[in-house]
Amino acid sequence: MSANVTVRSHGRGAEVVLGSGGSANALGHDDWRALELAFRELALDEEIRVIVVRGSGSTFSAGSDLREWVHAAPDDVEEAFAAMEAACTAIEECPTPVIAQVSGVAAGAGCQLALACDLRVFAADARIGMPIARLGILVSPAFAARLALLAGHGLARELLYTGRLLDAEQAVAAGLVNRRVPAAELAAATAELVAAVAAQPRAALVAAKQAVSVGLSPTRAAADSFASGPAVSYEDFQRGVTAFLSRSRHQ
């Protein structure tokens, strides 16, 4: 397990907490692997009826820790993207309903992680999107399918082409978010939804998730083809990461 992935079980529910509150809860390669393992293990616990994923502190997750990718070899970068996709797939394949509790930002791989969950509750000031093209990241079919299935192809293209982040109100209108609440009420609203889900028989919840997941077949097929092409344009990627980290240091 990773220090940046914490699992807490309590009764019929479990909570997966991302990061420690620093660096916008960006996750490294080992963290993504730990997240996948956490959900593979939670999938086996028949006592749990609902799982919440949230970030530590005031934000959900800004995605992957770009500091790992400075001077990283191409094979290491490809392996890191495969780890991200494996974690998202583990969430989708977990038979237990998963709720994302999102404050701050869910961007890049953090956006994908939120979209892999079954339901999303957003603070009113939260934002979501995929601002990754500028980094030389070549969007995978799995990443694109996850976004397009919820937002539609037109908006998915716009978000991927421009890197624009949606605010919570826009995300609700786009179908990416189930509930938008004042930031101060986020935890309570999530707890209310958790209670409503956990009150149902587990067998019914599992069946419902499996039935709805039939519609995810494009995402699953895209995930199966994930390794068919490179994840990044390597030279553009190295320039983009270096420029991004340089701007971050001077902000």
From TrEMBL:
Gene3D superfamilies: 2-enoyl-CoA Hydratase, Chain A, domain 1. GO terms for molecular function: catalytic activity. CDD domains: crotonase-like. It comes from the Bacteria. InterPro entries: ClpP/crotonase-like_dom_sf, Enoyl-CoA_hyd/isom_CS, Enoyl-CoA_hydra/iso. Belongs to the enoyl-CoA hydratase/isomerase family. This is Enoyl-CoA hydratase/carnithine racemase. The lineage of its organism: Bacteria, Bacillati, Actinomycetota, Actinomycetes, Pseudonocardiales.
